[in-house]
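RETRY 2/3 - previous attempt timed out on the joint model. Re-submitting the same 694-residue input unchanged.
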Amino acid sequence: MDYVAVISVEVVYAVASLVLISAGLAIVFGMMKVINLAHGEFMMMGGYATITAVNYGVNIFVAMLVVAPIVVGLIGLVVERLVIRHLYGRLVDTMLATWGLSLLFIGLATMIFGNTTTGISTPIPGFTVGGYQINGYNFFIILVSIVLLVSMYAVLKGTRLGLVARGAMQNPEMAAALGYSPDKIYMATFFAGSALSGLAGAVLAPLVGLVPTSGGAYIAKAFITVIAGGPSLIAGLMSSAGLFGLVNQLFTFTVSPVMGEVALLIAAVILLRLLPQGVTARFFKGKM
Amino acid sequence: MTSNRRSFLASSAAMAAFATLPTSTLAASKIKLGSVLDTSGIFDAYGKPMDMAMRLAVSEINASGGLNGQMIDISAYDTQSDMALYSQYGQKLVREDKVDVVHGGILSASREAIRQTMRKSKTLYFYNVLYEGGVCDRNIFINGVTPAQQVEALIPHAMGRSGKKVYILAADYNYGQITANWIRKYVADNGGEIVGLDFFPLDVADFGSTIAKIQKAAPDLVVAPLVGGAHLSFFRQWAAAGMKDKIPLASTTLGVGNEHKVLTAEEGNGIMVAYNYSQELDTPVNAAFKKKWADAYGDDTNYHEIAVSNYQGVMMWAEAVRQAGSVNRDDVIAALETGLSIEGPGGKITVDPKTHHATLDVHIMEFENQGMKVLETLPQRAPIDTQAVCDLQANPDDNTQYEIQI
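RETRY 2/3 succeeded.
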């Protein structure tokens, strides 16, 4: 019974971390159709921002939840102004440009922080469930993901800002005709997407050994989750992260961690064969 | 067009002749030591200190008057963590620089990229890194520990301090697979049992489910030959789950890249390891080595196991050149094969004539406050894994990397 509880926590945690690593990409790729191959590096920079802030004496939660998203968001803003804004609507070109950016960021991080592994400890102690120890930090990640999804939904659905952003993504000319500048809206959206990537990198930083190339570990999973999710932002994210997290953890527990990763990828291939437009192209249609 | 090409060929041939002439006359007056290491790129945490250690050894030898009255000249190349550059610079060292010896290579792939070039050109080659064992080639000398040397020492000690039930977590490539096999063997030999075995690709960084699985299997000891930055997450997540004080951990890899300085004291304390070197080794040779390092490089204390192996490799070669009275390859090999030994920072290190591997001291250590405290020294452990498959005295023409069947 305790073991079932532990497995359930791990499954929910796996789903939550997929949501977390994919949220920023879902906005940048899902809404703006910019293939951001530097997404992993935005996360890596969020991690370094957190570790640097903590080393300067900032409270770890402030560093993760405030400092990192702002720092990475601002980097994203600069990138958008200098590079991305010239490439809207040119899907393949954004791929090339952001791949270059990803190499640049890896190089810069190596110059600044060196090529050695760094990291910080988790701020939350482990605790006991029956005969088992669980990483208390898992619950923090689950909580952050839930808050993230709820606030994304609230902003997009409930505020005028969200409405304008969605409108501009669907039909920029119409939004411009109504007096909104698509240029500014794109800029703000890219800022939000980068900040979320930074947040994800920051929140995951205490669990990993961070190196400048750490971003590479996340990028494939993030893209698979976002693409399999399909056109609806939040429903897509939840359904594909839920499915892949579950498959991954079930195979990890019953077979081995390697098979867990394999099963995730096979599930993605089968899913995209059956639903080439993603889950939400058929189910939850028209939802957020 | 043709005349152009002809004149170009003629002039470049002349230039090539000029370029090679002076170097070959110079070679008579100076000994040339070649080095190929990744001093930039993703493996630079290993390569940079190795390069510094090599330069320290050479400047020490030169300061004491050189070898047989000749100074050593270094030809060093940075392979930028790119395996393709190893073959390129390996060729360059033997063809253009015409070096007398090559020290270098970090990953096994890099060693295999240059080993045959060295063998064909009859250039003596030293590989000074801990690795999976099994290379059998008369032209190479290997100064790192192999899995059996480590595991043979570590497992009985760790089981003695914990219990009989062992869970193994290993990196999923040949080093991890081979080491896991040795762990299995020594656990069985010491009357224990394996209650779980998991392999992880090098980019896996999430160990939550594994930690739950380990608890279900309830072992007395976890042995973790995990490799690289992503795998470091395991030790962090293990501590975060509060497991650290419940089940003891041992590793055959943690600490080689100074990982004990990356983990906090709370995360690392108590992890058991076994290597040839620790900065905390309390011997006169190590104290002298640390002082020399500090004099040369200031307060940079990034040297580790394989940097010291590289230092010991250069010193071993130098001793053989002194004994042989020349840098001629066959004379130096003959001198090394007498079972030559030197006293290095990691302890006494002796050439095993049968395998060209090293018999060396293995120190059992425990992480303590971001250092590696030496608990016990097992003197002069032979490379028993390679010895089981390789006998260069019986088959001097052998040129294989054996997979050792256990």
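The mean pLDDT of chain A is 91. Closing ticket.
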